[in-house]
Structure formats: C-alpha cells, structure tokens
Write a structure and sequence with these properties.
3-stranded antiparallel sheet; rod-shaped; mainly alpha; 3 strands; 58% helix; single chain
Length: 107
C-alpha cells in the first residue's frame, strides 16, 4: 500500500465533506462489520472510514430522519426524567403540629 496515496485520498475526502460532524452509514465488511448503522462522527473519522470503504456519507433524507428520531428520543427521555422526579417539602415540626391540629378540628 502506498501511504502517500492513501493519506492524499483521505485529505481529499475530508475536504469534500461539508459538515463538521457528518452522519455516516456503515458498510458490510469481510471482518464482521455490519451494514446500516448510522453514526455522527468528526470529519476526520468520516474521511478515514470512507477511504477505507467501511462507511459512506448519509444522504440528506437519511440524516434528516436520523436527527428527527434522535430529537424524539431526547424528548421522551426528558419527559421520563420529569415524571421520575420526587418533590420533597421540608416543614418545621411546629408548623406540622399546627397543620395537624387544624385538620382534626375540621374533621
């Protein structure tokens, strides 16, 4: 393998990637790599994987779909976090006794 040619291809590929954090889609490889995984990586990593043939850039539609799915998952996680919160109120014992006394009088 000619290393000068390899790194030149990587630099060329990197210069053609417009986003700082592009989405790439993995390709199936002979060593067990699975096709179809969508990942957001740095421009350098994307150029390396594209040059080596282990990934390709995601299309605009794929990127939009992926980002919408991630946003929906974030919203769902935020809602779950809000639901799981426990609210605690600290009440002085004198105030608690006064409140308990007023409840007995109403009953």
């Amino acid at each position: 393998m000619d290393l000068k040619l390899y790194y030149q291809k990587r630099r060329d590929t990197e210069s053609k990637i417009p986003d700082a954090f592009p989405l790439i889609i993995s390709q199936q490889t002979d060593d067990g790599g699975k096709a179809g995984s969508c990942v957001e990586v740095t421009r350098v990593v994307a150029a390396k994987m594209i040059t080596e043939g282990t990934a390709r850039l995601a299309t605009a539609d794929e990127a939009k779909t992926h980002r919408e799915a991630r946003a929906e998952a974030k919203r769902a996680a935020d809602e779950a976090a809000v639901v799981s919160q426990v609210h605690v109120t600290v009440v002085p014992s004198a105030e608690l006794a006064r409140l308990a006394g007023s409840k007995k009088e109403k009953a």
